[in-house]
Design brief:
Elements (H helix, E strand, L loop, with lengths): L1 E5 L4 E5 L14 E10 L9 E13 L4 E10 L2 E12 L4 E8 L10 E6 L2 E10 L2 E10 L7 E7 L7 E10 L2
Antiparallel strand pairs: 1-2, 3-4, 3-12, 4-5, 5-6, 6-7, 7-8, 8-9, 9-10, 10-11, 11-12
Length: about 170
């Protein structure tokens, strides 16, 4: 997969990998136990992490060209639910991933977009965080499909450097 960015217009030009397909997320079908590590404060040079457990359920939909993920946790005594909606575009061969959660109850207006290559999925978008323009990456490492990993990072310098601020390690329940 190739990523280029028009710095003046802040437009990402994301090219799919040669192997990108609607089957890229098949490894994630089912139910998973999730161990989370999340930075307490993002883009503040923090090195303090909070850890918590969650559960993730994923199923394919739209004749295999989409999938739905439900994410459940109880962090700091508060129930939290998130949902990822992933859609594969047959023409562009790219995935778009939309996120909704019980904190904001609105769907991402800027989904991450990308594809997998050799078991590693990279998905990007431009966004705003605390009034700063950022580049976001969601990364799925499915090189060990029985213990996949997800991580998220922000960049304030167009991807030259990244702050990895959320990491998840998954173990299959069923």
């Amino acid at each position: 997969m190739e990523l280029t960015q028009n710095k003046q217009a802040k437009i990402l030009d994301i090219k799919p990998s040669m192997t990108s397909s609607e089957n890229d997320f098949d490894f994630l079908q089912g139910k998973w136990k999730v161990h989370n590590r999340k930075l307490k404060s993002r883009l503040t040079n923090s090195d303090e992490w909070t850890e918590f457990e969650a559960e993730l359920h994923m199923k394919k939909t739209l004749n295999g060209f989409g999938n739905l993920e439900n994410f459940y946790s109880n962090n700091n005594g508060e129930p939290y639910e998130g949902m990822a909606i992933r859609l594969f575009n047959k023409t562009s061969k790219l995935w778009k991933i939309y996120w909704i959660d019980s904190n904001g109850t609105t769907m991402d207006e800027k989904p991450v977009t990308g594809s997998f290559e050799n078991g590693l999925g990279k998905f990007y978008t431009n966004d705003i965080f605390n009034e700063k323009e950022i580049l976001v990456i969601y990364q799925w490492d499915a090189t060990n499909p029985e213990h996949p990993k997800w991580s998220q990072a922000f960049s304030t310098d167009n991807g030259k450097t990244w702050e990895w601020n959320w990491k998840m390690e998954l173990s299959r329940i069923e």
